Amino acid sequence: IAWVKKKTLNSNQKILLLLGCSRICLLCFTWVSHFISRIYSNFLHVQTVRQLLATLQSFFNYSNLWVSACLCGFYCIKIANFRNSFFIYLKVKIDRMVPWLLLGSEILALAISIGIADLMETVQSSNLTSTCQENFWEAGIKMDKHFFSSFFLAGFGYAASFLLVIFSAVFLLFSLWRHKCTMQKSSMKDLSMNAHIRAMKSVLSFLVMYSINFVCLIMTVIYTMKDENTMTLLISIYLCAFPGVHSLILIFSNPKLEKALLKI
Question: Residue 91 pLDDT more than 70?
Fold first, then answer.
C-alpha cells in the first residue's frame, strides 16, 4: 500500500516487502508441493519436475532466511553507534547498498539451490543405476561424496544467515551497553536509547528463533538419514511455523505494521 501511494520505499520497507513475498511464496509452495506429492505422486517420478520442485523449495527457504538476516544487519548498522571508520562508511552507504544486498542474496540463494538439487538428483540417479555388487560399492562412495557436498552447501547457506544474526545481536548489545553507560554519566535519556532497546528486542527474538531453526535444520539432516519419521514430522512442523511466528514478531515490533494489522 505504501509503495502504491508514494511510488517509493525506504530501505526498511524494501527488505520487509521482499521478506513478505518470499515467505508467502515459501508457504504457498510448501502447500502446493505437499498437495502434488499426495494427489499426483506420479509427477515426482519425472526427473525435471522433481528437480524443479527441489530447487524452488530450497530457493524460497534460503531467500526467507537470508532476507531475514539482512533485516537484522540493517537494524544493527542503522541503530548501533561505533566510531570505526568502516562502520561509519556502512551507515552512510547502507541505503544504497540494500537493493544490491537483496539482489545478491537472491542470486546466491538460487545458485546454491540449483547446486543442491543437482547433487541430490545425481545421488538418486546413481542409486538407481547401480545393479551389480561392484557398482554398489562404487555408487556408495559417490553417494557419500555427493551427500557431503550437498550438506556442505546447505550448511553454508544456513550458517551464513545465522552468523549474520549473531553478529548483529552482539554489536547491538555492545552498542546499547556503551550508550547506557554514557547516559548514566550524563544523567540523561534520549530517543536513541529507546531505539536501541526496540531493535535489541527484535534482534534477540530473531536470534532465539534462528537458533531453534538452525538446530532443527541440523536435526532434519540427522533424522532423515536415520529414517525416523516422527521426529522429522515434528521438526517439519516447526520449520513451517517459523515464517509465520517470526512475521508476527516483526508486525508487533513495528508500529506501522501493527496499526495496519489492527485496521484489517
Answer: yes
